[in-house]
UniProtKB/TrEMBL annotation:
This is Orotidine 5'-phosphate decarboxylase. Its EC number is 4.1.1.23. InterPro entries: Aldolase_TIM, OMPdecase_AS, OMPdecase_type-2, OMPdeCOase_dom, RibuloseP-bd_barrel. Pathway: Pyrimidine metabolism; UMP biosynthesis via de novo pathway; UMP from orotate: step 2/2.
Amino acid sequence: MFMQKFRAAAISNRSTLCIGLDPDLARLPEHLPRDAAGIVQFNQAIIDATSDLVCAYKPNIAFYEALGSAGWQALKQTIASIPSHIPVLLDAKRGDIGSTAQAYASAAFDELGVDAITLSPYMGYDSLQPFLERADKACFILCRTSNPGGDDVQNLMLANGEPLFLKIAELVAERWNSNHNCGLVVGATYPAEIATIHQRYPQLPLLVPGVGSQGGAIEEVQAAAGDQAIINVSRSVLYANGGSSFAEAARKVAQAFLVPKQALNHP
Ligand SMILES: O=C(O)c1cc(=O)[nH]c(=O)n1[C@@H]1O[C@H](COP(=O)(O)O)[C@@H](O)[C@H]1O
């Protein structure tokens, strides 16, 4: 069950840091092969160096799909090398008509065996239902994304004078979360929006990417949402150093992203 697993890992590691496993062949350390086998070695070293510092890992499926069937195998091997007490959140941003969503849910939860997934809300409830009804898994639904283009749609004003992303937060909190397995994705680049969402729906965990490479500041995220923010960092940790000491360098950067001990207040 994702939520319990995540809270247990957050408490035992005193961390709300999620490391994004987004392996880019062009950025692998020089001594590793630039192929799927290199990715597995890279990820395993990163996981070994950081698994006592995180509350979750988030592989983004794009980096594995880009390598075809070898990439899919690399993703499975990566997931298998994550210690079983640390939850795995697959970043796939799924959402489609019911029958297709069912196949996506089965691929993520049964074939890959991950604990949680990211979803896009724009096709509505039935496109998410096959994920939401898996009460043992968690669904993180895009709300206010970290990228500049997020404004194009998410910030459109509704007739009630509020932006669309607040309606999405409301739908998730009040209609789609009957299994208590939902969270929202909110970019670290928009701390004021994080604060608004957290004040309205303090019970929802927030997956917050955008710290580091995209310019988001961890202190602002923590001030906005405290320990309900699962802070994802990918490139800043993974590519801290392109040499043979890349894993130790990743560990050092990850340590710098840890929440001060006293700030963690999970039940
Ligand atoms: O769903 C996500 O995780 C996500 C949502 C969002 O709004 N912004 C965002 O950057 N992400 C993902 O979070 C990760 C951020 O990577 P870094 O910018 O390298 O830390 C990538 O895997 C993105 O695809």
